[in-house]
Specification:
3-stranded antiparallel beta sheet; about 260 residues; globular; 6 helices; DNA-binding; 4-stranded antiparallel beta sheet
DNA sequence: ACCTCGACCTGGGCGC
DNA sequence: TGCGCCCAGGTCGAGG
């Protein structure tokens, strides 16, 4: 409830900030603020001694809305004002993001956090568990990876990328994957994520970090959004298909049996 | 116990 | 400089 934010949050310090899957968790003294940015959510720090950008710079080629520091505008839905006069703004154009407050500790025992699979960049992500989870479902491999319950944190970009690296087609059923194929995918997932981190994220249109800076992983993509273009490995034309209700791209040559 | 689909939103780009 | 349509890094709840 909205009232919880104004009655419970004031006076509490932020003890730590964590991430789990696509969720940000702000641990306060007696509550945990759970943030999901959806497609277009942004959290930015507002420094009272710095000047606001006069407007959001929109890149003519990427549509990227870029700013370092912004005043409250019509897309700013929530602001957290600190005791020193600075603030943290939550801005979300499409409003698909969610912010919830849990008593500290309850956030992990309840959905959506309790439904998440392992973190793919941590030791808890094991091949045996991954393989067993894939065996349990009748879905396509793309649907399974987008479901945060098998692996946490993968979205449309990194699923398409991991499938390319593993040479698997998004439409293939989990039940039909060989051990070798599952092993390739298990290794490809951390690989594409680490690359995304190394290049500061994939800035297709909206994404910028909290300093208003864009990443460059969009220049490194193998297949995502590249349908109609040449495969960087074999030169064949990247195909577009709808899989698990999401636009998907794959190379018909590299990703075939 | 699955799974699929439409709904939830705004805005940019493109064709006419 | 308008209008209608398509598209977009993601979930969710209803219904099969």
């Amino acid at each position: 409830p909205e009232a919880d934010f104004t009655t419970r949050i004031p006076g509490q310090h932020i003890r730590s900030v964590r991430r789990r899957g696509k969720h940000l968790l702000f641990d306060l003294e007696s509550d945990c603020l759970l943030v999901h940015l959806g497609m277009t959510g942004q959290m930015t720090f507002w420094d009272q001694n710095a000047s606001d950008a006069s407007s959001f710079y929109v890149s003519p080629t990427t549509g990227l809305q870029r700013t370092r520091q912004h005043a409250v505008d019509k897309h700013t839905h929530l602001s957290f004002w600190f005791a020193d006069g600075n603030a943290m703004h939550y801005r979300d154009i499409r409003q698909f993001g969610k912010i919830r407050l849990f008593p500290l500790g309850e956030e992990s025992r309840n959905p959506p956090i309790s439904n998440l699979g392992p973190e793919p960049l941590e030791p808890g992500f094991t091949f045996d568990d991954f393989s067993a989870a894939l065996k349990r479902t009748k879905r396509s491999i793309k649907a399974a990876l987008l479901d945060q319950g098998i692996v946490a944190g993968l979205g449309n970009i990194y699923v398409d990328e991991a499938l390319f690296v593993a040479k698997l087609r998004p439409t293939w059923l989990c039940s039909a994957l060989t051990t070798r194929e599952k092993r390739a995918l298990f290794e490809a997932i951390p690989q594409v994520l680490e690359q995304g981190i190394r290049f500061n994220g994939t800035s297709l249109r909206d994404y910028v970090n909290s300093e208003g800076e864009r990443g460059s992983n969009q220049e490194m993509l193998w297949v995502y959004g590249r349908y109609g273009e040449a495969c960087r490995v074999c030169g064949d034309t990247i195909v577009r298909a709808t899989v698990a209700q999401r636009t998907s791209s794959y190379c018909p040559t590299c990703q075939s049996r």
